[in-house]
Design brief:
The protein has 2 domains: about 230 residues, Hsp33 domain (3-Layer(bab) Sandwich), CATH 3.55.30; about 60 residues, CBS domain Like, CATH 3.90.1280. It has 11 helices and 13 strands. The strands form 3 sheets. It has a 6-stranded mixed beta sheet. It has a 5-stranded antiparallel beta sheet with strand order 8-9-2-1-10, with helices on both faces. The longest helix is centred in the first third of the chain and has 18 residues. The protein is elongated, with a radius of gyration of 22 Å.
Length: about 300
């Protein structure tokens, strides 16, 4: 992922490629093509929207509705703001068994909503909700920015084969006194970015995309930031979830099933705890050596 800023305009942008991460995500689930396509777009969008956040925490982009697709979401985890630490992505979808391959956004979701949630590790949680009242997810996201933050935005989300890429430019709150000039700057840049085709976005590296569009403009291009697929499930987090259920409920499960199994819906990993494991979790002093033994 590579961010950039126009030196003489109040406009910023981001270019991203997610080929390997997207393949990893989609290989873990058997989604219909229409669901895979929309989930891929959410995956790209969550990374694009996270690029300019100056916080440590999570940003998620979710769609939900009353159609064959109940919901789909992608989440981006940010570490150590101001550094080049990787962005970590994960996502999932839940859908009816009879989703056909050619459904568009509205046929998939019916009457739906777009939900963007920002959860800093420290600070207040923010959530924005808008209706899915435009033709594509990219257009709905553009509408969200204009409605909630009054920031004109252009997004492109492209998928093809094993490739996935995204591009975003956004007008910032103007720093200049000439509002008319700022409007003209945005109209010019917006006209340029609309000439970028999905095929070009998928085929060209960031340097060529930026040169193709903005070779007549002075850009400040930032260092490339890695993006990866990474699920944050673990045996330790599963153990905490078991303890949170309470000993009485866990013992009921053990009487029937002999073990407690925690499934991660994101990556399909399983964490199994037998009777001995669970007994150690609820024993006094389980946070010491006994707990460490069952977690490894």
């Amino acid at each position: 992922m590579r961010g950039f800023l126009f030196s003489d305009m109040d406009i910023r942008g981001v270019h991203i490629r997610l080929d390997k991460s997207m393949q990893t995500l989609l290989q873990q689930h058997d989604y219909p093509p229409a669901v895979s396509s929309l989930l891929s777009q959410l995956f790209i969008a969550s990374a694009l929207l996270s690029a300019n956040l100056k916080l440590q925490g999570r940003l998620s982009v979710q769609v939900r509705g009353d159609g064959p697709l109940e919901y789909a979401m992608a989440e981006c985890r940010l570490e150590q703001p101001g550094t080049l630490e990787p962005l970590s992505l994960k996502g999932l979808a839940r859908h009816a068994p009879d989703v056909s391959d050619d459904l568009d956004l509205h046929a998939l979701l019916g009457k739906g909503q777009l939900v963007i949630t920002i959860e800093p590790d420290e600070g207040q949680r923010y959530q924005g909700i808008v209706g899915l009242d435009r033709e594509t997810l990219a257009e709905c996201l553009e509408g969200y920015f204009y409605q909630s933050e009054q920031l004109p935005t252009h997004l492109q989300l492209a998928m093809g084969g094993n490739q996935a890429a995204g591009f975003m430019v956004q007008r910032l709150p103007t720093r200049v006194s000439d509002e008319e000039q700022a409007d003209e700057d945005w109209e010019l840049i917006h006209a340029l970015v609309t000439t970028l085709t999905p095929a070009e976005l998928l085929a060209l590296p960031a340097e060529q995309v930026l040169h193709r569009l903005f070779h007549e403009h002075d850009l400040q291009v930032f260092a490339e930031r890695p993006v990866r697929y990474q699920c944050d499930c673990s045996r330790e987090r599963s153990a905490h979830a078991i303890v949170a259920l309470g000993q009485a409920e866990v013992e009921e499960v053990l009487q029937e099933l002999e073990r407690v199994v925690i499934d991660c819906q994101f990556c399909n990993s399983q964490y199994a705890f037998d009777k001995v494991d669970c007994h150690m979790l609820f024993s006094p002093g389980s946070a010491s050596k006994g707990e460490q033994e069952i977690l490894h």
